[in-house]
Write a structure and sequence with these properties.
It is a single chain. The chain is α+β, with helices and mostly antiparallel strands. The protein is built from 8 helices and 11 strands. Helices cover 45% and strands 24% of the residues. Strand 4 and strand 5 form a beta hairpin. Helix 3 packs across helix 4 and helix 5 crosses helix 8. The longest helix is centred in the middle third of the chain and has 27 residues. The relative contact order is 0.14.
């Protein structure tokens, strides 16, 4: 953690726990807070004109949430953020952060690096979805998701959006993984039986 970030937490931050399944940022609604993720995984999606949702990030790929809105003229959030595990975050008042940003230029560099990292991650995700088989990509996704718990609820729509696949395709991949003894499913719950097997399938995606 940057020294400047640690100082910000001490001066302006409020530590909070966000429960799994909680939508704490809503697209189109005024965003009053900036969030720094200490622990946990988040799903970030955006609803387009057609009404469909585009998934931009999942799992622990981001540290800052609301950094793009920090530099925008409006107050509305441009995407929706939902906790997919329990999350530990630090919440900062958006108005105070904007004022402090003008007083401390080096803070702008921190956010610039964070935004650049997001752009790189999204670009990499697009390339991965094009170049690697779905089985490998899904194995990497499940490996990351099972870092804290070997059992968790699985959402096909969320996975499909992130991996650029259809739900029927994911169903086939899940059956393949189950037949190989890597996972088991009971309703909407998925259990990882062989996490090392997932790592081997994912290969250089991890």
């Amino acid at each position: 953690m940057d020294k400047i970030v640690a100082e910000l937490i001490a001066r302006f931050g409020t530590r909070e726990r966000i429960a799994r399944g909680t939508t704490f940022v809503q697209q189109g609604v005024a965003l009053q807070s900036l969030y720094y993720v200490l622990k946990g995984n988040v799903k970030i999606e955006q609803t387009v004109v057609s009404g469909k949702s585009m998934l931009f990030a999942c799992a622990g790929e981001v540290n800052w949430l609301g950094d793009l809105e920090l530099f925008s003229d409006g107050d509305e959030a441009n995407s929706t953020a939902t906790a997919i595990t329990d999350m530990d975050v630090v919440r900062f008042p958006m108005d105070k952060m904007r004022k402090h940003l003008k007083k401390q230029p080096e803070l702008g560099e921190i956010f610039a690096r964070a935004l650049a990292a997001k752009m790189w991650a999204y670009s990499k995700l697009s390339a991965v979805n094009t170049l690697y088989p779905l089985l490998d990509r899904y194995a990497a996704y499940l490996y990351r998701m099972s870092a804290e718990s070997q059992e968790f609820p699985i959402s096909l729509s969320t996975s499909a959006g992130l991996l650029g696949a259809g739900e029927r395709q994911l169903q086939r991949v899940l059956r393949t993984l189950a037949e190989r003894g890597v996972i088991s499913r009971a309703g909407r719950m998925l259990t990882i039986i062989d996490r090392e097997g997932l790592r081997q399938l994912a290969g250089d995606l991890l």
